[in-house]
Amino acid sequence: MEEAKKEENQQVSKILETLKRASHDLKSKPNASPNEKNSSATKALSELENEADAILSSDPHLSTLSQHLTNLKTLIETLQTSRGYGLKSYLRRRYSTHELVRVAELIEAEIQGLIDRDQIEALIKALRTPHNNEEECVRLLIEFQNRLSQGFNRDLQDLILKSKLFTELETSLCDPNRSKIIREQSGIAIGALIRFNKDVFVGEVLMGMTIRALISMGSTASLSVLCSLIKLIKSPLVDEIQSNGQIPKIISFLSSEELQIRVLAMDCVLEIGYFGRKEAIEAMLAEGLIEKLVELQRSELGGDLIEMGRAGGLNKRVRESEEKMFLESHPFASCVARFAVQLEVGEGLRQRERRSLKQEILGRLKAVCVSDAEAATIMAEVLWGSSP
């Protein structure tokens, strides 16, 4: 019984997708000849009539679509019969073409709404029973992320809110008994929701357990989502991270044995430096941030960018291009100065706080550098790179 229903749903979905493409073609080619416009639409209509008449008449969700399809067929027939060259025929064709495009847009939107509803229902069901079919759950999560990436849609947003999908995603992310890939994909979906409409979903991120779960996971995927959320939500999210005592955990990732974790932790530190208030910056410094950054800058993947800036004969564009290439292979190059620059140009600090924190950074550098030459190079980068 379950298998038969699933097969029927797949068949209807295939027909709806075919009709959606046909409607899109009609909408995007309003000046095509009637015969050219009719081909794909007529084929899709025939398929829907022959295979889904019973569904159209019995499913209340398809009643609006059924009416739009009837109107579309009528308009197509009108266009086929309006082939004269008189003024009356011309005006009839113009009006019918305009109406055909309008109805095609309604059909496309209606079908997309039906597809979205079915996909969200399927995703929620999969999230509640992830052990039944992990691959299907992951597929649906990726499908949902792709749908959100198409841009804002109010009807889709209403479906998400009514279904309480965010709560399901957060529950999945925070559940340590679920597989790593499902938790990660749930986190990525939450990030996609914030990009979809930050104003609506940011409150749920700030009030919920999303950030704690992402940090506690400590995977490349979860830290990537965390970094993107800091960029999107800015100071309020940094405030939440700091008030929850999560700064030490983020700093600890700089010592991870996994390179990509260290790189992503560095990205998070730079974003916190840009958006963080004084309390967050002081919390990072108290956790030995400068000492860890100096250690990373000493490593094989570190180095100094200051010499590139001093190189003669390079214009600004060439220098920036060379620095970008160098950073791709040396992600921790001049990381102390890059952090200082974030404080200087960022949004979270007052001017007085910037000066005070710069002095603290310079003081910590004197204590941690192993030689006068190292101290001079890094301090020069901090002073030169973060000057207005």
Instruction: Categorize the overall geometry.
Output: elongated
Rg from Cα? 29 Å
Distance between the termini: 70 Å
Low-confidence region ranges: none
- Report the portion of residues in β strands: under 5%
Major beta sheet, specifics? none
**Secondary-structure-derived class:** mainly alpha
The strand count comes to 0
Write the layout of secondary structure elements.
Layout (H helix, E strand, L loop, with lengths): L1 H27 L5 H25 L4 H19 L5 H42 L5 H15 L5 H10 L1 H10 L5 H17 L1 H10 L2 H8 L2 H14 L1 H9 L3 H6 L6 H17 L2 H9 L2 H10 L7 H5 L5 H14 L5 H11 L5 H18 L3 H14 L3
Helix pairs in contact: 1-2, 1-4, 2-3, 3-4, 4-5, 4-6, 4-7, 5-8, 7-8, 8-9, 8-11, 10-11, 11-14, 14-19, 19-21, 20-21
Describe this structure as you would to a colleague:
With 388 residues, the protein is an all-alpha fold. The chain has 21 helices and no strands. α3 packs antiparallel against α4, α4 (87-128) packs parallel to α6 and α11 packs parallel to α14 (259-275).
